[in-house]
Write a structure and sequence with these properties.
five-stranded parallel β-sheet, 275 residues, binds iron/sulfur cluster, globular, alpha/beta, 12 helices
């Protein structure tokens, strides 16, 4: 059997990138037992953690990009290994050296789009509000009740634009005083942060925050869970606190307040999913 000596330098790099909690793992395997990946293919967070503890991580492997950061295993881990943050630390190392596994190679184009146009598709920033053409949607102005922030997908994806248009139509129907910031918006930055590109995330976040503050925004309505999480839980690290509300909550409030009414029964049981 080969004796493997810990690679101290790599351990230090992983630690410096935020993966210090790996060392707390005692290999119980609970993370693998609850990980949804293992219903469709083999993926072991436990193994990833073990390799990182000894500085044996192969940053060219697909595995460091597989965790979807769903949050299930951190809830179970008896040692608070912080699988998501620690896993992002490995991606940070790969990002630092610009080493991407085949499945993660689109990140290069995504970064370029975010840098140049503020969205991951590299679509023209100036067309960001085109989804609202023909609707009575105003530019956000100070004093309005709420800023509607459709994410990059709802702004550019042909199918998801329907979600943004439907949202605006419902808000208008309920008489909500809302506006959008269109070409002044950036991607919230959630996903690029999960690839370990902290600098790009910070740039996007700071620009968004400046735009919100300059335009007098205090309440932000979102339909993307990524925007919701980022604005609510991650932007406060920049010493700002916007009120963030998800469309599902907001619609419930409007219905409860009698500002929206159902005209007829909808005899189906439905599940709301990330649009
Ligand atoms: S659940 Fe935590 S302690 Fe157990 S193997 Fe996974 S990371 Fe290690
Ligand atoms: S956070 Fe990642 S490793 Fe943990 S259960 Fe979810 S997908 Fe699996």
């Amino acid at each position: 059997m080969e004796t493997v000596v810990p690679y101290k330098e790599i351990i230090e790099v992983i630690k410096a990138s935020g993966g210090d909690a790996f060392k707390r793992c005692f290999q119980c395997g609970l993370c693998d037992a609850v990980c949804p990946w293992n219903t469709v293919r083999n993926f072991s967070m436990r193994k990833l953690v073990r390799e990182a503890t000894f500085g044996l991580t192969d940053i060219e492997t697909e595995d460091i990009w597989l965790c979807t950061t769903c949050g299930r295993c951190p809830q179970q881990c008896p040692r608070d290994v912080k699988q998501i943050e620690s896993g992002v630390a490995l991606r940070r190392v790969a990002t630092q050296y610009e080493v991407y596994a085949k499945g993660a190679s689109p990140i290069r184009a995504i970064k370029s789009g975010l840098n140049a146009q503020g969205n991951p598709f590299g679509e023209n920033r100036e067309t960001r509000a085109n989804w609202a053409e023909g609707l009575s949607v105003k530019p956000f102005a100070e004093g309005m009740d709420v800023l509607y922030f459709p994410c990059c997908y709802s702004s550019y994806d042909p199918r998801l634009k329907k979600v943004a248009r439907a949202t605006a139509a419902i808000l208008n129907k309920a008489g909500v005083d809302f506006g959008i910031l269109g070409s002044k918006e950036n991607c919230c930055g959630e996903s690029i942060r999960k690839t370990g590109d902290e600098d790009l995330f910070k740039r996007l976040a700071r620009e968004n925050i400046k735009t919100f503050v300059d335009n007098g925004v205090s309440k932000i309505l979102v339909s993307s869970p990524h925007c919701y999480h980022t604005f609510k839980n991650e932007y406060p690290q920049f010493k700002v606190n916007f009120e963030v509300v998800h469309i599902s909550q907001y619609l419930f409030e409007l219905v409860s307040a009698g500002r929206l009414e159902f005209k007829k029964d909808f005899a189906k049981t439905v599940t709301y999913h990330d649009p």
